[in-house]
Fold this protein.
Amino acid sequence: MTMLEIMSFDSFAVRAVVAGLGVVLIAGPLGCFVVWRRMAYFGDTLSHAALTGVALGIVLGVNPAVGIAVIGLVMGLLLLGLQQQRRIPTDTLLGILSHAALAVGLIVVSFMGTVRFDLMGYLFGDILAVTGGDLAWIYGGGAVLLAGLAAIWRPLIALTVDQDMAIVEGAGRLPVRLAFMILMALTVAIAMKVVGILLVTALLIIPPAAARRFATSPEGMAAAAVLIGGAAVISGISASFIWDTPSGPSIVAAAATLFALSLVAGLVADAARGRS
Amino acid sequence: MIGTSLVEIRDGSLTLGGRRILDGVSIDIRPGQIVTLVGPNGAGKSTLVKVALGLQSLDRGEVRRLPNLRIGYQSQQITLDQTLPLSVRRFLTLTHSQPVALLQQTLADVGVPHRLDTGIHTLSGGEWQRVMLARAILRHPDLLVLDEPTQNVDIMGSVEIYQIVARLRDDIGCGVLMVSHDLNVVMAATDQVYCLNGHICCSGHPADVSRDREFQRLFGPTAAATLAIYPHSHDHTHAPDGSVAHGHDQADGLDHAHHHSHAHQDHGHHPDDAADKRGRD
């Protein structure tokens, strides 16, 4: 393949990068809330449950992304409902939901012995096989999700700072939290194509964590998370071309490297401040 | 309006997780009135505040809140995540935007001028407490609810915060519901003190001791005019399991207040705790 072919818009390489950038546009800002609200474990729960979604989608003959979104919504609603009781803490509830969903997913997959499908592609992503239709899904869906996030942005930040305070001031009605759960479930469904269901949480939390050091406002952190996520997508896909590594894991490894660099940059900045 | 309760809780009882938190509690806050809740840790003070705010419902009893009540609420400890970058300006305007001049004026009123564009994670404990107070009073509430507003603040800082609250009450006539972490020293301007330990142990006015010479010597004239000793008068004691035993010798005044504070130890300052929970750079 010549360089020109790789660079043309029709090439799978360019499509992969465009798809990845589309996903980080929504994963960056939404991931900030996952970090601020300490919901990384909920992301894991969604990704485990996504396997059940994929399996059910294939069994029922619908798009696996739809299956993932539906199962994610069910998980979010179950969590909100179970959180109303106080005896079992949230992390335990998430552990129960996560592993129950994973177990059900594995059982459903075992019944599909004769159905052939690319399990590895779903687990670790298959960004190099992204089609034009996938791109339409990612950008169309991503735009809707971004608009939804923008609509609840201010009350969600108030709720994140202090739930009681926000509710007293009229900013914290239940639909905001419900809307956030829905956004997360749908984002996992969209991001699954890029890094796979096992690594979706990484795309949500690593770019915001790396962005924290450079941000002085919530919006600044969201923007920086998008930039860092974009850099991870481009460098990860480039690396996977150069060294023929799997693309999804390469993107996550690149993001983790950027996070490590942000830590070093922070230490250097602190040391410089200490000397002056 | 005068005479109409802003919030009234009548005979409120609540059991959470098998533990009786509130037991037949009745309180009432009127416009222009300052009500202080005191009591040991775990007495249900913050829970009662949440009931008054409508954040927590009761098993039994009645809560009546004036409709369309504008509430300024400072919760006990906002567990601000270190990962959320926020300036003071942004913190003050989280739910309602306000003119910058008002923000600056309010910050100056609570004694932290020029902090508008400071990151909240770089504030000291005392500054943070004042910024939270500024946030609660910013919208000129009908009811100001302050859960331990003098936590992590030294005695002179407490005096200043009490003066700000009293001035605000005088200026806009709001009702004030305040939780105090100190069992015996409360704000002198308090109209009614409720001592809570599941139920209301006793209630009344803080003693007017501000002219007492010993008290003045202890706190200095300014503090002595702002702080007051609340003399508890209980007709019962609490067994370690929280049950009530009647027939305890009744005693009034400061002497008894001392016994009381010994009986309910472990309610003091824990500045380290609070700092850890909030986290900072």
